[in-house]
Amino acid sequence: MDYEAVIGLEIHTQLNSETKMFCSCPNRPGDEPNRNTCPICLWMPGTIPKFSDQVLEKATLAAMALNCEIQKHNAFDQKVYYYPDLPKGFQLSQFHKPLAKNGWLEIMTEDGVPKKIGIRQVHMEEDVAKLIHETEGRTPISLVDFNRAGTPLIEIVSEPDIRSPYEAMEYIKALRTQIRYVGSADCSMEQGTMRVDANISIRPKGSDQFNTKVEVKNMNSIHNVGDAIAYEINRQMGRLSAGESIVLHTRLWDPEKSITAPMRGKFEGPCIPDPSVPQIVISDEWLENIRSQLPEMPGRKVERFVREYGLPHDEGVLMSMEKDLSEYFEAVVQEGISPRTAVHWIASQLMPAMRERNQTLSNTPVSSDRLTELIAMLERDEINAKSAKDVMLKLFETDERPDVIVKKYGFKQVSDMNELEVLVDTILSANPDAVDDFKNGVAKAMGFLIGQAMQASQGKANPKLIRDILMTKLG
Hints:
Blueprint: E1 3-14, H1 53-65, E2 69-70, E3 73-74, E4 77-80, E5 90-93, E6 100-108, E7 114-126, E8 130-134, E9 141-145, E10 152-158, H2 165-182, E11 194-204, E12 214-219, H3 222-241, E13 249-254, E14 259-265, E15 271-273, E16 280-281, H4 284-291, H5 298-309, H6 313-319, H7 323-333, H8 339-356, H9 368-379, H10 385-395, H11 402-409, H12 417-430, H13 432-439, H14 444-456, H15 463-473
Parallel strand pairs: 12-13
Antiparallel strand pairs: 1-10, 1-11, 2-6, 3-16, 4-5, 4-15, 6-7, 7-10, 8-9, 11-12, 13-14
């Protein structure tokens, strides 16, 4: 029997507000353990939470970026369950009246066909504390770090519209891009500011029934999400083919063994309205003020880059992947560099060099104006392409301007015709076989001679002039 997968994702994203959701403690979970705590986020009896306006703003911007309908009345509930990282016995979440509903994101399937993935709802909730398990060299113990307790989250619940691991990964990428654009969250699975749970079931192809699902957790990268879903689809198909049933439960992804393993039975505690946090009432005026803060979003930016700058669609998508990348690209173009040249240098030279150094555009020393000056020197033939790449690497090591680096390290291109003619005569005398090959119609002999000249000049000769002189002297 042919099966198809039915996949829905629940994505928890940590908002980057200055404080926690219900108190004034700093929102910095990575600090020294239990440093950012107070009676409210330690869940001591008798404390009264005070909801953060900034959290509501960032959550609303994120929901708008996901094309959701903002609910004018939303409220918090007590999501009751018992676990060591939640000592008060319940978590403040939005079950009955979420912040937003009925959103969507568009992705491209493996076949290159656009597809909309529905978003059922976006709701706010407080994060729980972090458990740290120590087992080496002592009796196993568990420690609790309350820095994370009370940090603001939004949970984004998709509709079960995803049909493959590829679609799941593309949906996560699109969601991450949208939320980063509005500045609400960092959305880093590697750093734990975004966590993804996948609900996976399978059914006969062509059926519209929903079968028993299995939830998979513990995936700390987009690649792991794809691998975990692929494994779980195959595991479930194997069980059904063997006449075994699928049981509702939660599993963990083991990235070292590349398997999912049983974790626990699926448990849903009761959710009851919380009396300590007043219902949130959103006015039209406030909503329009937040909507006015939305930047130009990636889809429209791609269309504009294609229309205004003449970029191919794939290059427009590439330069619009991140908001700071699109701003960097436009800053270079607005200084007079051609759009295609800007894309080439940013995508093929700058970004790989940044990745090697674990840098981002927010902390790289290669600012847009320094890169612009470097490209301009290349276009004025003051340096050649090889030297330009060498100069760019020097930009990572010093704050000196490109022209200073060129003079300091002798990268200036040699364009003096008399000097180049002497160089070419030397190369021709030293390589008579290549000269004969060229005269006998061997085209690659020209490339060899140019390479010899560039090597003899330590990469400083103007290759265009070298070619012209060679063509003249060889007739």
